[in-house]
């Protein structure tokens, strides 16, 4: 029981640190990271079916969706880990989750 508490506590603090790190980035760095992810994921497939200019336009349109999904994912992880930390600390009973 205590091992799980410490595991989720460390994981929660780690996720908070990652959020803090990403929040410290300026818009150019953050946008570059999102575009790099999109390019690694889609660029070759898009180039097979369309021109470079069209592929770049689609990548720029997808960037906002990727950024919003990343925010949703990281904060969902934080919520889950923090609720598990509270649960295993004994401060929360099963009916609260």
List the helices and strands and how they pair.
Elements: H1 2-23, H2 27-49, H3 52-89
Helix pairs in contact: 1-3, 2-3
Briefly characterize the structure:
With 97 residues, the protein is mainly alpha-helical.
Please provide a written account of the structure.
This protein has three helices and no strands. The protein has helices spanning 2-23, 27-49, 52-89. Helix content is 86%, strand content 0%. The longest helix has 38 residues, at 52-89. The chain is elongated. It is mainly α and 97 residues long.
Quick tags:
3 helices; elongated
Alpha carbon gap, first and last residue: 17 Å
Give the biggest sheet: none
The secondary structure category is mainly alpha
- Helicity, as a percent range: over 70%
Total strand count, please?
0
Query: From the alpha-carbon coordinates, what is the Rg to the nearest angstrom?
Result: 19 Å
Count the DSSP helices. Answer: 3
Order of helices and strands: HHH
Mean pLDDT across the residues is 86
Strand content: under 5%
């Amino acid at each position: 029981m205590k091992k799980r508490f410490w595991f989720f506590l460390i994981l929660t603090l780690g996720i908070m640190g990652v959020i803090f790190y990403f929040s410290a980035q300026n818009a150019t760095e953050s946008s570059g990271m999102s575009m790099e992810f999109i390019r690694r994921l889609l660029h070759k497939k898009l180039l097979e079916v369309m021109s470079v200019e069209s592929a770049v336009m689609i990548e720029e349109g997808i960037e906002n969706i990727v950024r919003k999904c990343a925010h949703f994912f990281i904060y969902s992880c934080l919520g889950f880990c923090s609720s598990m930390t509270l649960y295993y600390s004994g401060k929360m009973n099963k009916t609260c989750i």
